[in-house]
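Hey L., structure's done. Input below.
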Amino acid sequence: MPAPSPAAIARHPHLAEPRRPGWVRVDMHSHTMFSGDSTTTLEEIRAAVEESAIDVLCVTDHNAIEGAVRLEKVLAGLCRVIVGEEVRTHTGEVIGLFLTEKIPFGANAHDTARQIRDQGGIVYVPHPFDPMRRNITEDSLVSLTAAGLVDAIEAHNSKTSLASLNRRALEFGEAHGLALGSGSDAHVPDALGSAFVEMPDFDSPADFLLKLREGRVVGHHWDKARPWSPRIVPSVSEQG
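Output:
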């Protein structure tokens, strides 16, 4: 993998830190134009990945997987893509990773987690204590965790403005024996590189979850608006 660009390092200084041999940098939470609340095209994602030198990108659009599926081809030879989805449940959002099919939104959190597991996927809880987001309620998180339906929790989300909220997520994960994740939650291209997990390389969903427990959460707060530029965003109506 080439080194991060000077521009990316200026935005996210931790990108300059050397990689450990055999380890990869995984951004576990990102969005494309298929999310509906992001205008980032797939080509812009490719350029941002080249700049940040991220090794693995979890593409977790809101209630959609089409962008992730397309990015598997767009990023081929540059960055591995994990197909994910940030699913809206009746008590907040849950992410499924390593999906093969779209998960319907609007079910309860337990049923959503079981649908993720039925695909051989990983249940990942994003920004769990951030009231400014569609975070899962604390009661639902506790219930879901007690039922053994949570695999990992987002210990750092770069769009979460209060460090105390990320710290609370970290402490909850540690107290309940969950794997700890980290993601940019990028809705604009320049956000890629603001957060990731540095972890030993993996070769399957089960191995990913195992290696994630050995990983190191890296990230800083970064939630700047993208610079305005004229462009045409392709329609995403065909995603279904």
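Residues 163-175 form the longest helix (13 residues). The beta strands are 23-30, 56-62, 80-89, 92-97, 122-125, 152-157, 179-183, 195-200, 216-219.

-- N.
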